[in-house]
Amino acid sequence: MWLSVKIKQQSKSDCGAASLASIAAHYGMRVPLSKIRLYSGTDSGGATLKGLVEAARRFGFLADGFKGERESLDKIPKPAIIHLKKDDGYLHYVVLTKSSASYFHIMDPLDGEIQRVPRESLLREWTGYLILLSPSVESKKMNFKEETQISLIQWIKGLLAKRWIVLSGGILLSVLHLVSSLAVAIFIKYLLDDIIPSGGGDQLAKVSILMALILLLSIVISITRSVININLSIDTDRELITNYLRHLFRIPLPFFNTIKTGELTSRIYDIYRIRNLIAETLPEAVVAVVTLLASLALLFLTESKLALLCLAFIPLYLTIYIIHDRLNKPLMRCSMERASRFQSVVIESLRSVSTIKNFSNERFAMARTSLKLEELNNTLSQTGKVSIYAGAAAEMVSKFIMLVILSSGGGAVIAGVLTIGELVSFYTIAALFTAPLQQIAFAISSVREGSVAATRYLDIMALEEECSGSGVRVRTDNLVVSNLSYSYPGRERLFENISFKIGRGKILLLRGESGCGKSTLAAILMMHMRPECGKIEVNGKSIFDLDPVGWRCSVSIVPQNPDLFGNTIKERIMDGVESNDYREIYEELCMELELNRIFESLPNGDATHPGEGGSLLSRGEQQRIAFARAVARKPSFLILDEATSSMDIRSEKIIERAIMKLKKEGTLILIISHKSRSCLIADEIIDMR
User: Fold this and answer.
1) Per mean pLDDT, which of 315-319, 603-607, 661-665 is the most reliable?
2) Which among 142, 369, 482, 591 is least surrounded, fewest beta carbons within 10 Å?
3) CA-CA distance, 635 to 628, in Å (whole number)?
4) Which CATH topology does 478-688 take?
5) Structure confidence at residue 146 as a pLDDT band (50, 70, 90)
6) DSSP symbol at 464
7) 623-642, pLDDT tens digit by residue?
């Protein structure tokens, strides 16, 4: 069976997701790679067979993984996903589409193309694992509207529709500017054929004044058009970037574990390409078409034979465009992907700069970054060279057109068919004819670039957002967890049948070995993830029936990594606190947690910027500030996830006093800790295994 849709992977770890997306599209369902990554648990190491099967089932397919023999690839229904181990040790998924006596046909998501591979070559790389999938009866009936990818064309139409008045105004001004350019050609013809031969000085003065006014008007039009384009660009950037960032903050937290930060920030640069498409390329293409038609009409009115000669060169322009587009398309996508990888490496290296220095890994880090930069530069170089050669070819055709016009037109003047004025006018108008031809040809490449960028942007925008409510706080008198089990997508069961209860003014201590799922349980309690089975109830009601925003306003967590953000320490503690007693709450916290001792060592006290993520503070100081941030909101349920792991004994005692005060106030408290001191204040201890 031939695969009707071929989808290229966006990163090295996306081969499984792209293979599944291609088969889903083959059966009529367009699924964004971002959703497959999320549902399959794809991370920087790729996807597991189990994860891809789970994702396929989420989209309504009958799917399962198998271990096969050499003969299996001929017998299995196709298309199917098979797992390979390349000669360099790289694990890779491809789509098997067809088998024959000598070859296998596969769709390799690495380049998104169908390849014919010798049987022995593929069998040598095949690990024996494969995934079979087909649409189920339920999948054929289900409405894929929520699951399918946002329509690129409809989305671009929507952007244009919002701005049609501004775009129309800009196009109209461009057309008026074109009219002024054509007026120059008419003026030259009139000057050479009528005014100069007749010696009409007065007539020349009048026409010159008129032309001066037209030229001044064209300058005003040009300035106005440029201002409109700037405002349109800023407006488009503002809308797309704001929507993108707002959407990122509403995406479920597990998604951020499947993608690197550089991948997300690279979408900002994609937005600039989309803006160029909306605000520049498409309006300029419309103007180019109008210019082409108007100049062509004038050429035929002036001299039809020469105009036909000009038309004969259009296929040459089309040929140049087709060759350029075919060469440029894969290079363009590759350059975007490599730019994204380069950003990811730079961000990762800068975040780990202390580790790099501590282990004297500067040379390794620089080599790793330089390698990604070299890959990006090579792609950009190839893209630039292709554009240069295509531009040179188009320019050569344009100059050849002008040469043909002058040669043929000169012969027509000698023969008395054309006047000198008509020839010069024709030559001027022909320049207006060749320029839009080049513009239209290369505008299509810009459309391609904008479309690729928009596809990458929409891949993230297609992710479902969390339900956002009014943010009304939830009263929490008791929390009951019953038979809770969880496993990450594509992974084995992390924990199962966890049960406990916390009442008002009670402290529960949760202990367990590293990696047993304690922090994952905390994330589930924060409604970032849903358990496979079991219940979490507050006052007899499931927390998953509550408004997530309202629940998180009622619950505070001190995570293992404090993740402090804000311009000053005070802002990092009190950001998001809405209370008339704002100042009193802050001063009480500073006194209770002895934060002033920290502030005294800083140049500007609590107005000091403590560095990115609090990097200028010690780990223990970061944890004290994170604790203050958590309790400033007066939560009814407090989760402490290794909240004192980096504190000294004195700081721990300060936190313990604060915890006991919260207990007396009726706060539900869950402590996740390895420290034996926590046992002294806990009312109940649960060991996770």
Assistant:
1) 661-665
2) 591
3) 12
4) Rossmann fold (3.40.50)
5) very low
6) P
7) 898 899 889 888 999 999 98
Fill in the amino acid letter for 408. S
pTM of the model: 0.80
Strands 541-542, 533-538: pairing is antiparallel
Residue 446 in tokens: 């810009």
Q: What is 386-430 written as a DSSP string? A: HHHHHHHHHHHHHHHHHHHHHHHHHHHHHTTSS-HHHHHHHHHHH
CATH number of 232-461: 1.20.1560.10
- Total residues belonging to the chain: 689
In the three-class reduction of DSSP (H, G, I as helix; E, B as strand; rest coil), residue 364 is classed as helix
User: How is the beta sheet containing 533-538 ordered, strand by strand?
Assistant: 495-503, 478-486, 533-538, 541-542
- Please tell me the CATH code under which domain 12-141 is placed: 3.90.70.10
Q: Secondary structure of 38-100 in the HEC alphabet?
A: HHHCCECCECCHHHHHHHHHHCCEEEEEEECCCCHHHHCCCCEEEEEECCCCCEEEEEEEEEC
Between helix 420-461 and helix 282-302 the angle, nearest 10°, is 160
Residue 483's pLDDT band (boundaries 50, 70, 90)? very high
Cα Rg, the chain, nearest whole Å: 34
> In the chain, what's the furthest Cα-to-Cα distance?
112
Give burial (CB, 10 Å; 0-12/13-18/19+) of 399: exposed
Domain chopping of the chain, boundaries: 12-141, 232-461, 478-688
For residue 416, which amino acid is it?
G
Residue position matching structure tokens 């800083």: 602
Question: Taking Cα atoms as reference points, which of 96, 53, 105 lies closest to residue 76?
Answer: 96
Instruction: Measure Cα distances from 277 to 103, 452, 623 in Å.
Output: 42, 11, 47
* Cis preceding linkage at 548, omega within 30: no
d(CA 220, CA 223) in angstroms, rounded, equals 5
- pLDDT tens for each residue of 272-295: 889 888 888 888 888 888 877 877
**CA atoms of 240 and 274, how far apart (whole Å):** 9
628 close to 595: Cβ distance less than 8 angstroms: yes
Q: How far apart are CA 242 and CA 240, in angstroms?
A: 6
439 pLDDT above the threshold of 80: no
pLDDT digits 0-9 by tens, 198-237: 666 677 777 778 778 878 888 888 888 888 888 888 999 9
The structure tokens 């409405």 sit at 143
Q: Please, is 170 exposed, middle or buried when counting C-beta atoms within 10 Å of its C-beta (0-12, 13-18, 19+)?
A: buried
156 C-beta neighbours (distance < 10 Å), count: 19
Order the strands of the 113-118 sheet from edge to edge. 61-67, 126-135, 80-85, 91-99, 103-108, 113-118
Residue 567: pLDDT band (50, 70, 90) is confident
pLDDT digits (tens, 9 = 90+) for 334-353: 787 788 778 778 877 877 77
Which tokens in the block code for residue 484?
A: 């809770």
In degrees to the nearest 10, what's the CA dihedral of 527, 530, 536, 541?
70
